[in-house]
Amino acid sequence: MRRTWVYFVACAVVYDLVWIWQAVLLPLRVPRHWGAAGTPDRFGSRTEALAQSALLGLGLLGLFIVLGWAVTQAPLERLPVRALQGWSRPERRGLRRSLMEDLWALGAVTVLAAAVREVVMLPDLRSASSGLAVLALLLLWLVVLGAWCVGAYRSRYARPVTPPARRRDTNAARPPR
């Protein structure tokens, strides 16, 4: 069994380290919004920026922990998987484990993307280039998320293949008795 929750915890630790790094390096006055021209049009305090960053991290952690709890507690009939009746076969009983592995992996990628966003925004708070980098990061995260979901849908959660019933050919020559 893969232990994808370890990657989730590792990415949460990375996010915490980035938050500490921000607490040390952020100036007292931080741009909080950029206009269309790429110039800051709203400024906030370091405390505001750190609080927003902490709330983002805690929100993501809370979201994935609650989703993990829901997957372990929900009746199998309520889980959104195609052809759920095929999962009751003995060789396919790992539905909850598969869902949890995917949830932790997607959570790890999401928390890591949030940490990278914080790192990208920090060095150059006065230019629009950091905003473009954040948009590129968001696009990359959406592509990874979409590819993961499509791959899981097509392979991991695909309808179980049932062999066709063997039909008995009544017209075949019977061996002599």
Would you kindly provide a written description of the structure presented here, covering whatever features stand out?
There is one protein chain. The protein is mainly alpha-helical. The protein has 4 helices and 2 strands, in the order αββααα. A two-stranded antiparallel ribbon has the order 1-2. A hairpin with a 5-residue loop joins strand 1 (29-34) and strand 2 (40-45). The chain is elongated, with a radius of gyration of 25 Å. The mean pLDDT is 78.
Structural class by SSE content: mainly alpha
Largest sheet: 2 strands, antiparallel
Major sheet: order of its strands? 1-2
pLDDT below 50 for ≥5 consecutive residues: which ranges? none
Order of helices and strands: HEEHHH
List keywords for this structure.
177 residues; mainly alpha; two-stranded antiparallel sheet; elongated
What are the SSEs and their pairings?
Elements: H1 4-25, E1 29-34, E2 40-45, H2 46-73, H3 95-121, H4 129-156
Antiparallel strand pairs: 1-2
Write a concise synopsis of the structure shown:
With 177 residues, the chain is mainly alpha-helical.
